[in-house]
Structure formats: structure tokens, C-alpha cells
Design brief:
It comes from Sphingomonas sanxanigenens DSM 19645 = NX02. Helix content is 29%, strand content 23%. The protein is built from 16 helices and 19 strands. α13 packs parallel to α14.
Length: 534
């Protein structure tokens, strides 16, 4: 007879690997409300890993709670769920905040006899106590209010009667029994919650181990979280065959790896060199089909190099005819763990649309790497600020911008927009472009580039917001170390705090109907109509 067995119920911090399971749990728990997307859950975890807890029972996700740190100025004042949660991404997390704010708590309806909610609340309390926070705040659903609205004089009276024991509410009652107390009512907290009339009780748990008069003031430690980045400014050159092209690419991968780089970045449309050995001039459609024929070999080569050289490869971009028949401009990102990730260009340029009939993609999301989440914006995409903001909401701290420009004016559009994205999102932006020319290959007649690694403009960073830059129009490899911990400091304590100071009460980014299919597959973030509370 065995003397021990594996634990059937586990409560732990959520990780990016749990995203799919959590999305399914939320859909089961909130029947009738639109669920979180994978991007939202990923953002919650990436923005504050310590604050997200998941419960698994016999290997199935049965409970989840999401939390972040906020200052009293934000947490204890009137707000709604969209505003406080950063549109569901948890992007308002402030590492100097003295309160833990809970903006999600859900339990599988079929597993409510296991005290999952109690266990998740206990994990939250333990976190607040360990971090010496003032306590926990959240907006609590009050699902009994709509049924009792004729018996009470408004939502405040309803809460008071529940506290006095004259009325029963399953959610408020549970939270009161766990040591939370109401400090008011939040109107229009979650309009989709019709059972609560859109209201929420503003609940507080005060940490008994911290005296508010003597509570510590939190600062962000000036840690070092170093990442080494290499960006390739690639010379367009004729090649004899696919193998010769790979040898040229592998040379730069090898050199970047010798410098112990974590990432190496190649330019947009760098695979157009593969058209240089065609014996006749190809029409745009013929050229795309020839390039598409190389896709599988390209992906295998990038994957092999990433693993052999122990480096993450941002594979520029490669025009490809995808399974649905559309022609897309796709970045293939090969990570050193052997995984491959495809990211489509969202905004084709007029030139791409005219000559190549390239269509824009309809999904954008971060890529989880061993150096944290990163994002890819292919050239023109960097000129649309809402895309970068969405990736940063999901937790990206580095944005890679492979580009292909033919003139200084075109290059500077990408360069200036890349610098703007670094400032407004307090992140690093890495540009990689082509130089030289490739006769008889469309889109490669002439090239202009000055690849660079850009930073926010504040005290911890380079004086001009440039960590490193190449000499313009020569083939070279540019390498720099960046400190991701500097971003954490700047976002919380910098001279300006672009992320924290957004007016969530006035505006947000929502995706339109075209992305509905991708949203249904959990690939796209959405705006309102999501669960939330507690």
C-alpha cells in the first residue's frame, strides 16, 4: 500500500502556461458575460506575477484571482472596473502601492464545496502581509440586490442591511465572513452585472500586522535585470541558393551568440534575397509563391540556429501565402527553447498592398521568452501607437521593429515613431533594417537604414534615449545591454509616468468586429463586457 500520494488540490501563483486553462475557467464561472481573452490574462500575470493565484483540482483549473498593487489615492476613491483594472490587463499595477487591489475572483461552479474562494482569499492575505501592505481593497458584486431592490432604499441601504444580517447576499456574506468591511458603494462599477444593478460594494480588509500611522513607504529597488540585444543591419546581396542565404544569416547569429546576446534581430523582408537567384523575372504573385515555398525550410533553419547557438532570433519578416489564401508579411520568431512564433504585420504599406497584394493581420500579442514578454511591430506597425500600447499592456518591455525603408525620410518615420513608442510606453524599442540594393528584385532597389536600440528618456537611461546605433548604410551588428529593472523604476518613480498617468476614465483601446474570429480563439484582447470584481 502506498504511503503517500500526489496532492489533488493546489493553490499557487499563476504562470503564462496557465493562461488557456484560466480562460476556460472564467468562461465557465461567468456564463452570460464575455470572458477574458488570453491577452488579458497574460497581461495580468506579466504585470504582477506575485498577485495572481490559480487553484487546480485533479489537474483542472477551478479557481483564479487577480490582484495588483495600488496607492490609496486610486484604490480608496470612486472608480469603475474598466478604469481600475486597466481594461482588464492589470496594467495599472504600481510596485510602490500600499494596497493590494483585487479585480478578479472566480470559482468553477461545480467545485464550490472545496472552499476554493476561501483558499484564494487566504493566499491574497498572506501576500499582503508578506509585503507589509495596508490591506486589500476590491469592488464586490452584490448579486442579490436586483431581487431585493424594492425592499431597500438603494444600494447603500442594501449593503447596510446585509451587514446587519437583515438580508442575505451570497457574495457579500462570504466576504464579510472573511474579515472584509464595506466603506461605500461604487456606482456603475460593472454595468454588465445586471444582478448587482451594475453596483459594487467597496470592500476593505486591513492588515492587522501593519499600523497605518507607521506603515512603510515603498520604493522600487534599483535592481539589475540585464538583457543583451544584437540588431543586424543587413546588406542586401544576391545568393546562389537557399543554403547560401542561411549561411549569411547564420554568420550573424554566430557572432551575436559569441557576444552572449539574448536576442538577435533581422530586418523586414530580409528573405527577398531568395529571389535573387531566380532565372527569370517573376510577377508579384509568382514571387510570393516562390517565397512561400521556402517557409518551412526557413522556420526549420531559424529553429535549429536558435537552439544550437542558445539565442532568441527575431526573424525579420517573410512574405507568405497563409493557409487562408491571403498574402501576409510574417515575422517568424525562433526562441532558444525550440519554439517558433509567427506574428503578422497588421498594417501593410500602400506599396505592399499595390505590388504584393499583402493583407493586414488581425491579431497582436506578446511572445513569452526566457527574458520576459516581448512584442514585434513590423515597420509601418510602429507608426500606430495603439498597437505598441496593447503589447505593453500585455507585459512587453521590449518591442522589436524589423523595418525596410528606401529613403532617409521613410527611415526617419520609423525611427521617430520608435522613439515615441519607447517614451510613451516606457519600454525599449529595437530597430533592424536592410542596406544596399538588390537589382531585379522588387522592393529592394535601394535601402536606407540606421539600426538602433532606443530607450525611454529619463535619468536611468542613455542621455539621448539611444542605447546604441549603427553607422548608417553599412552592414554591421550593433550590440547593447539594457536593464529591464530600469523600466520598472521609471514606470513607478520616473520623472514622468506615462503608463500610470493614463486617463482610463476617459479612453481605452477596443478591437473592432474584424478581429472577432481571433478573439473567439483567445488571440485578441477586447474592451468592455468582461467579468470582474473581487
Amino acid at each position: 500500500m502506498p504511503t503517500s500520494s500526489r496532492a489533488r488540490l493546489e493553490v499557487r501563483n499563476a504562470t503564462p502556461a496557465d493562461v488557456r486553462a484560466i480562460v476556460g475557467l472564467v468562461d465557465r464561472a461567468y456564463e452570460g458575460l464575455s470572458g477574458y481573452t488570453a491577452g488579458m490574462i497574460r497581461g495580468q500575470i506579466n504585470n504582477f506575477p506575485e498577485g495572481q493565484f490559480v487553484a487546480f483540482y485533479d489537474g483542472k483549473a477551478v479557481g483564479y484571482c487577480a490582484s495588483m498593487r495600488l496607492t490609496a489615492e486610486i484604490a480608496l476613491k470612486p472608480h469603475d472596473w474598466e478604469e481600475i483594472s486597466g481594461n482588464g490587463f492589470g496594467s495599472r499595477h504600481d510596485p510602490t502601492g500600499e494596497w493590494l487591489y483585487g479585480y478578479e475572483m472566480c470559482v468553477d461552479p461545480k467545485q464550490r464545496g472545496l472552499r476554493i474562494g476561501q483558499r484564494l482569499y487566504d493566499a491574497r492575505k498572506a501576500l499582503a502581509e508578506r509585503l507589509e501592505l495596508h490591506g486589500i481593497v476590491f469592488g464586490a458584486r452584490m448579486p442579490g440586490y436586483q431581487r431585493a431592490r424594492r425592499k431597500v432604499d438603494g444600494p447603500q441601504d442594501y449593503v447596510e442591511q446585509v451587514v446587519a444580517g437583515k438580508l442575505r447576499d451570497p457574495v457579500l456574506g462570504f466576504q464579510l465572513s472573511n474579515g472584509f468591511e464595506p466603506i461605500g458603494v461604487l456606482p456603475a462599477y460593472l454595468p454588465e452585472d445586471t444582478a448587482s444593478g451594475g453596483f459594487a460594494a467597496h470592500m476593505v480588509y486591513r492588515n492587522p500586522y501593519v499600523e497605518s500611522d507607521l506603515a512603510p513607504k515603498f520604493r522600487v529597488p534599483r535592481d539589475v535585470e540585464s538583457v543583451r540585444i544584437a540588431t543586424v543591419q543587413l546588406q542586401a546581396r544576391a545568393v546562389e541558393n537557399f543554403e547560401a542565404f542561411v549561411r549569411n544569416i547564420e554568420y550573424f547569429v554566430d557572432v551575436a551568440a559569441d557576444y552572449r546576446s539574448d536576442f538577435v534581430v533581422f530586418p523586414e523582408l530580409y528573405t527577398l534575397q531568395l529571389l535573387s537567384y531566380e532565372k527569370k523575372e517573376l510577377s508579384p504573385i509568382e514571387a510570393i509563391d516562390r517565397l512561400t515555398a521556402h517557409t518551412d525550410k526557413l522556420v526549420k533553419a531559424l529553429t535549429r540556429m536558435a537552439m544550437e547557438y542558445n539565442i532568441n532570433i527575431i526573424g525579420g519578416s517573410h512574405p507568405t501565402r497563409t493557409d487562408d489564401g491571403d498574402i501576409q508579411n510574417v515575422a517568424y520568431v525562433a526562441l532558444r527553447d525550440g519554439s517558433i512564433h509567427a506574428r503578422e504585420k497588421i498594417h501593410p504599406t500602400p506599396n505592399e498592398r499595390y505590388w504584393w497584394n499583402i493583407k493586414g493581420g488581425d491579431a497582436i500579442e506578446v511572445i513569452q521568452t526566457d527574458c520576459g514578454p516581448v512584442g514585434v511591430l513590423i515597420c509601418y506597425d510602429s507608426e500606430f501607437p495603439e498597437l505598441a500600447r496593447r503589447l505593453v499592456d500585455e507585459g512587453a518591455r521590449i518591442l522589436f521593429v524589423p523595418f525596410c525603408t528606401d529613403s532617409r525620410q521613410a527611415y526617419l518615420r520609423v525611427r521617430y515613431c520608435g522613439q515615441a513608442r519607447a517614451i510613451e510606453n516606457q519600454c525599449f524599442v529595437v530597430l533592424s533594417g536592410n542596406v544596399g540594393n538588390l537589382p531585379n528584385v522588387d522592393n529592394m532597389d535601394i535601402q536606407y537604414a540606421q539600426s538602433c536600440i532606443l530607450t525611454p528618456c529619463d535619468f536611468p537611461f542613455a542621455r539621448d534615449g539611444i542605447a546604441a546605433e549603427a553607422t548608417e548604410n553599412v552592414e554591421t551588428l550593433t550590440i547593447s545591454d539594457v536593464n529591464l529593472a530600469d523600466l520598472t523604476w521609471a514606470r513607478a518613480e520616473g520623472t514622468v509616468r506615462n503608463l500610470a498617468d493614463r486617463r482610463f476614465d476617459l479612453y481605452r483601446i477596443s478591437w473592432g468586429k474584424r478581429g472577432s474570429k481571433a478573439r473567439a480563439a483567445g488571440r485578441l484582447p477586447v474592451g468592455p463586457a468582461t467579468p470582474g470584481g473581487g
